[in-house]
Amino acid sequence: NKKKSLSAYEKACELIPGGVNSPVRAFKSVGGKPVFIEKAKGSKVFDIDGNAYIDYVGSWGPMILGHAYEPIVETIRRQALDGTSYGAPTLLETRMAELIVSMVPSVEMVRMVNSGTEATMSAIRLARGYTERNKIIKFAGCYHGHGDSFLIKAGSGAVTLGLPDSPGVTESIAKDTLTAEYNNIQSVEALFDAYPGEIAAVIVEPVAGNMGVVLPELSFLKGLRELTTRYHALLIFDEVITGFRLAKGGAQEYFGIVPDLTTLGKIIGGGLPVGAYGGKKEIMQQLAPVGPVYQAGTLSGNPLAMAAGIVMLETLNNNPSIYTELDRKAGKLAQGIRNNLQKTGIPGVVNRAGSLMTLFFTNLSGVKSFDDVMQSDKQRYAAYFQSSLEAGIYLAPSQFEAAFVSHAHTDE
Ligand code: PLP
In this entry, which stretches build a coiled coil (predicted)? Predict the structure, then answer.
């Protein structure tokens, strides 16, 4: 019975640009048919025709504890009864900040926003205010949200996520965004040399999730730390994907690098819209009203979102075994992929950190391990794996989507 979803699709196309294909939807269509999700529980989502699907991507990252996780549902219900937005600081916001500061090594002070995009744009604004410089170095293929200046071609002609220039983006915006090459420290140094005293910050995905889980060379991250310090620019780790995921303290803990500013999103709100950015006190205190850099948001730190985020972060913070268990599974996953590569005779390397990152991108509540998928559904897994290989990347987010499609279960 696809009648319901087909008529819903027509209506969506009339009202929403792109209909169900509007960007960043994990579930667009299955078998070429549009899918409208009605509800979700655990690792599954259910469409309006009553079909169930496994949500491998955890709704593009945030739902790592599964959909409608009881403790989060309960806290949202209780908080809704106490009010959802006060426009004033709360104990909840303070508790959330306390958790972030205790979990993320470099963060001494933190400000809440509503998304990863807001977090990165605010961090950049702050870096510009703090350094009184304008130019930002980013890396080709790294994604930092939909803020205008990041969706444009810059410097060496790189394109973010294959997105074209937005018409109307002016040269003046473009010229302040310089693009370097990931894992190529010389390309960063060349930009520092070309623009002496002009670069405010380097922003990097410490694991390039948006390039298909490309791991950094440790020497590259160390080089970024060293160069930014030498040239008095700030190092911003965009940990919207890696935060609380690669390790409890994110990529900075995993790789032992201390950035100046960190941006967070996805997991942090337990499925509600929350982003955050934080770092050294001295820098964060440049924010108004203490300092001159203005940044504020109507719903930032709202108690409903904070309540959900607190349950999410406390769950991760109080259960370190989640991380050791994941690391174990990551080892197995890396081994499984290596074996598969060997069987197909295709050369390739998948290491533990890459697997860990990948595994933690998934919804952990029911799809506990990719081994389950492999064993229960060898043929489909083979197709999935093959598609990863053909794309030249392993288990990239876009491949998860393909995996979802090919693994679509129409039974419960
Ligand atoms: N930064 C990174 C590394 C991301 O992957 C994303 C989103 O995927 C963002 C920033 C933007 O976050 P949001 O989509 O919550 O605005």
Answer: none
Quick check: is 288 in a domain?
yes
SS (H, E, C) the chain: CCHHHHHHHHHHHHHCCCHHHCCCCCCCEECCEECCEEEEEECEEEECCCCEEECCCCCCCCCCCCECCHHHHHHHHHHHHCCCCCCCCCHHHHHHHHHHHHHCCCCCEEEEECCHHHHHHHHHHHHHHHHCCCEEEEECCCCCCCCHHHCCCECCCECHHHCCCCCCCCHHHHCCEEEECCCCHHHHHHHHHHCCCCEEEEEECCCEHHHCCECCCHHHHHHHHHHHHHCCCEEEEECCCCCCCCCCCHHHHHHCCCCCEEEECHHHHCCCCCEEEEECHHHHCCECCCCCECCCCCCCCCHHHHHHHHHHHHHHHHCCHHHHHHHHHHHHHHHHHHHHHHHHCCCCCCCHHHHHHHHHHCCCCCCCCHHHHHHHCHHHHHHHHHHHHHCCCCCCHHHHHHHHHHCCCCCC
Candidates 47, 55, 238, 260; catalytic one = 238
Q: Tens digit of pLDDT for each residue in 281-325?
A: 999 999 999 999 999 899 999 999 999 999 999 998 998 877 776
Nearest protein CA to atom 1 of ligand 1, as residue: 144
Residue nearest to atom 11 of ligand 1 (CA): 145
Give domain status of residue 36, yes or no: no
Do 184 and 284 lie in one domain? The reply is yes
ipTM > 0.85 for the complex: yes
Say which of 9, 143, 182, 394 is annotated catalytic: 143
